[in-house]
Amino acid sequence: MAHVIALCGGVGGAKLAFGLTQVLSPDDLTLVVNTGDDFEHLGLAISPDIDTVAYTLSGLADRERGWGLAGETWAFMSALRGLGGEDWFQLGDKDLATHVERTRRLAAGESLSAITAHLTRQLGLRHAIVPMSDQPVRTWVDTADGPLAFQRYFVGERCAPVVQAVRFEGAAEARPSPAFAAALARPDLAAILICPSNPYLSIDPILAVPGVRDAIRSAAAPCVAVSPIVGGQAIKGPTAKLMTELGLTPGVAAVAAHYGGLVDGLILDDADAGEAREVERRGIAAHITATVMRTDDDRIALARDTLAFAMALRAPLTARVG
Ligand code: FO1
């Protein structure tokens, strides 16, 4: 197997990322993670999607919540609350160590890439989890109630305000992280996968980093996305609500339109088989399979299926490129 890049956000994306690590060797996979959700809170540098992917891959994640560590304790939060401190964003006692160590290393001048490589190695992970960029990119959500920094919208306001637009502050000045850029330039790049993360909040920040969209478009390797929408609903999170607020009809067709001109193939759930024709009308190959990942076996099966679909698309693309 040649090299595979997978773009992913937090909870939904991490499940497929886990499956990919079970079927691809560390040399064959670069997991590129959204950092638009990152923020500074209580003086700490928080990178929620990187941590969600790292905890999921190491088997340490709280599977019920999807974020944070299993068996977590909350003494810090309870003490902070007692002092009248900010308690709208939950930081577990063990999780806190990750943020403290990341913050210390950033202050000492290490890059987010280097810190992420160190922290994931400490968790025993051998697959590369890389931030989309080492420069800060911050997702802002313009709502009917005014502009909100991403975590204020997502956690503080529980996605309740009506979204008018999403923007990525700092993106224009950002560069792909060194490992992301290197993976995009690999001559043996076999596929670029887009995990079933929120296209607008988790994947768009990655695509907003200058050069990324063009590199994906011009790559000889096929780009395949897995739809995060099943039967008009998001598996988890605010994707469907957000789509409605942005004037879109939540469904696979809108996801295909969003990724139009970028992806060669889209994987849709069995529940959406009826929309395959609409996807293909846009010049995107459609593949129908079970995409809801409840167990580790589901994650591995979808990873295998996604890779097989991408490899099938690769042959004609390679022929076209010469
Ligand atoms: N999500 C919540 O809904 N509430 C929280 O208090 C919360 C805390 C938190 C702490 C660390 C971390 O890595 C993630 C955390 N998340 C929390 C998840 C996070 O806000 C979102 O999952 C992502 O940013 C969206 O992908």
Explain what you see:
The structure is a single chain. The chain is of the alpha/beta class and 322 residues long. Strand 11 (229-230) and strand 12 (233-234) form a beta hairpin. Helix 1 (11-23) packs parallel to helix 2 and helix 4 (93-107) packs antiparallel against helix 5 (112-122). It has helices spanning 11-23, 48-57, 75-82, 93-107, 112-122, 150-156, 178-184, 199-207, 212-218, 239-245, 252-258, 276-281, 296-321, and strands at 3-8, 29-33, 39-41, 44-46, 128-131, 138-143, 146-149, 163-169, 189-194, 223-226, 229-230, 233-234, 265-269, 285-289. The chain starts with a strand and ends with a helix. It has one domain: CofD-like domains (Rossmann fold), CATH 3.40.50.10680. The mean pLDDT is 95. It is 41% helix and 19% strand. The chain contains 13 helices and 14 strands. The strands form 4 sheets. Strands 5-2-1-9-10-13-14 form a 7-stranded parallel sheet, sandwiched between helices. Strands 7-6-8 form a 3-stranded antiparallel sheet. Strands 3-4 form a two-stranded antiparallel sheet. The structure holds ligand FO1. Ligand FO1 is lined by residues 9-11, 37, 46, 48-49, 51-52, 67-68, 89-91, 95, 151, 154-155, 202.
